[in-house]
Amino acid sequence: MRLLIPALLALTFVGCSCQRQAETDTPVVDAATAPVADDAAARARADAAKRADALSQQRLDAMNEAVNKLHLYLQQLSSGKREAADKHWAYQRMPRGNEEADLRSIKQFTSMRIENDTPKPLDQEAVPESLEIPVELRVDVADGESRRYTGWYRMRRSPVDRSWELTATSLSVKLQ
């Protein structure tokens, strides 16, 4: 035991082969630049989040604008303002009789209820240029008859004035 104590003391002075060597590929962090790098990364993340939020808001605004334009068209159609309603169609085309079922043949509406689902983008743009809007319409006509229509309207942005235009529709009478 007396020999063991001097041997242990000698090892403490000489060193042990199992000691860790300093790692050479560990970056040396300067205390003065570390907060600056963290602030820049945080600002970059905040800017990216703001851009994503702005793009999401633009997408939502575009879809709301298209839905509002469709509702305006249907309101004008049901209130007898056919010429104003026809101006919402692209290429100055009006739907054929079978596209809007018999909706255009109704002479006098007493009421129209418009319900739509979420518009579906028809393109891959971040802010859509072309949409399909699913709709369900409940129409009451002058003779007391009530009709339901289901289908969709397709819309696109005009390349000239960037407003939404109707391009196609498919409505059918829903049996009650």
Give a brief description:
By secondary structure, the protein is α+β, with helices and mostly antiparallel strands. It is built from three helices and five strands. Strands 1, 2, 3, 4 and 5 form a five-stranded antiparallel sheet that branches.
Task: Tell me what the structure shows.
It is a single chain. The chain is of the alpha+beta class and about 180 residues long. It has one domain (about 50-175): Nuclear Transport Factor 2, Chain: A, CATH 3.10.450. Helix content is about 35%, strand content about 25%. The chain is built from three helices and five strands. The chain has helices at about 5-15, 35-80, 80-85, and strands at about 110-115, 120, 130-140, 145-155, 165-175. Strands 1, 2, 3, 4 and 5 form a five-stranded antiparallel sheet that branches. It is elongated and about 110 Å long. The termini are far apart.
Rg over C-alpha atoms, rounded to the nearest angstrom: 35 Å
Structural class: alpha+beta
- How many structural domains are formed by the residues? 1
Quote the beta fraction: 25-35%
Low-confidence stretches: none
Q: Which key terms come to mind for this protein?
A:
alpha+beta, 3 helices, Nuclear Transport Factor 2, Chain: A, 35% helix, single chain, 176 residues
Helix and strand arrangement:
Elements: H1 4-14, H2 34-78, H3 82-86, E1 109-116, E2 120-121, E3 130-141, E4 146-157, E5 164-174
Antiparallel strand pairs: 1-3, 2-3, 3-4, 4-5
